[in-house]
Specification:
- The protein is of the alpha+beta class.
- It has 2 domains: 3-115, Up-down Bundle (Methane Monooxygenase Hydroxylase, Chain G, domain 1); 119-306 and 317-369, Alpha-Beta Plaits.
- Helices cover 49% and strands 20% of the residues.
- The longest helix is centred in the N-terminal third of the chain and has 41 residues, at 49-89.
- The radius of gyration is 24 Å and the shape is globular.
């Protein structure tokens, strides 16, 4: 790339970062950090553990947000200096180094720009994801397992921690459902655009006549409940059943009644957890999942009240992506139009393009509403 093109690219990146800085409002966040640091240094802070966790968690998020912006600004200034030096010295090696850094900065600034669009009430939280096989029989169960692996690979690509709470295996192949958490800043805001019905079209490996099969799987994404949410669940409102943990077989299958099924009697919501070896641990994890579902139910009720005041409903959450493996190869988001010609890469966790376009699409929909 010519020096004048690099200079123009750098100028565009500077404008983008300036817009991000305005949204992030670094001076205001620095003031909040000072206040929280003072609060966090109080000797009696941990007398109230819930409040202490809230303070330290918010302080950590604010510090991370400011550090990202400030680091990018410093690197952008350094790239500008490097480009000036390359121009003055007519140094091709320095110009190549500047071009490489500018390309890296472009990717990181674009990612941060998307993150600034995540301003929902729970967007900063960890995500609780549930995948369910829907219409399509054994192909749907296999498709649900493919989606579970896709999200696991996506988390691994980003070095995000994830934990599977429960898997219900189908009889022939695949899974009936799976529930897992992804633990990273903005995990819920990021993955929430994956919610909806996913559709797979392929030659069924389970059909001895080799016919094309269409199958469906549903993805639900909830914010993980925090200690400060105070989602109280009285013991009288739940029924707890225990059973043998199930699995695909082998020595690792638990043979004790450690798996837990919790039924919330007022709403009929049922959750299961069998990932842990201990019944007590499974009950605690199951209650966290139930709290998340009750939190989301309350949010949806508030949203429904607002939607009732609008002239048209919200179609968010219906069929949103098609994965076609036959007669051609394509994965396409039906909301944004974004597509990939490499389903293998997508199923291996390469879904950032879909997620980023989804976040931008959602913001446009919200602004248009």
């Amino acid at each position: 790339m010519a020096l004048d093109e690099l200079t123009e690219h750098l100028s565009q990146l500077n404008k983008s970062l300036s817009s991000i800085e305005a949204v992030v409002d670094v001076p205001a966040k620095n003031k909040q950090i000072e206040e929280l640091e003072t609060e966090a240094s109080a000797p009696d802070l941990w007398n109230d553990q819930e409040h202490a966790q809230s303070v330290t968690s918010r302080l950590s998020r604010l510090q991370s947000s400011v550090e990202k912006v400030q680091t990018l600004r410093s690197r952008l200034d350094d790239a500008s200096t490097l480009l000036e030096l390359a121009s003055e010295e007519s140094d091709a090696d320095t110009a190549q180094e500047a071009e490489k850094e500018i390309a890296t900065l472009a990717d990181e600034i674009d990612t941060l720009e998307v993150q600034t669009l995540l301003s929902g009430e729970y967007d900063e939280r960890d995500a609780l994801v549930t995948i369910r096989s829907e219409a399509g029989g054994v192909d749907a169960a296999d498709f649900a397992a493919m989606l579970l692996r896709m999200y696991e690979r996506w988390a691994e690509r980003h070095a995000y921690s994830y934990e599977v709470y429960d898997i219900s295996y189908a009889e022939e192949a695949g899974i009936k459902s799976a529930t897992f958490t992804v633990k990273s800043p903005y995990a819920y805001g990021t993955l929430s655009v994956e919610q909806g019905t996913h559709r797979l079209v392929r030659i069924s490996p389970f059909d001895n006549q080799g016919r094309r099969q269409t199958s469906f799987a549903g993805v639900e994404v909830l914010p993980v409940v925090e200690e400060t949410d105070n989602i109280d669940i009285p013991e009288k409102d739940i029924r707890v059943d225990v059973f043998h943990a199930s699995g695909p077989g082998g020595q690792g299958v638990n043979t004790t009644d450690s798996a837990v099924r919790i039924t919330h009697l007022p709403t009929g919501i049922v959750v299961t957890c069998q990932n842990e070896r201990s019944q007590i641990q499974n009950k605690a994890a199951g209650l966290r999942v139930l709290q998340a579902k009750l939190l989301e139910r309350a949010r949806q009720e508030r949203e429904a009240e607002m939607d009732a005041l609008k002239s048209d409903g919200n179609s968010w959450g219906s069929q949103m992506r098609s994965y076609v493996l036959h007669p051609y190869q394509m994965v396409k988001d039906l909301r944004t139009g974004f597509e990939s010609g490499s389903p293998d890469n997508v199923f291996d966790g390469d879904i950032d393009g879909f997620i980023e376009r989804g976040i931008r699409w959602r913001r446009q929909e919200e602004q248009a509403a």
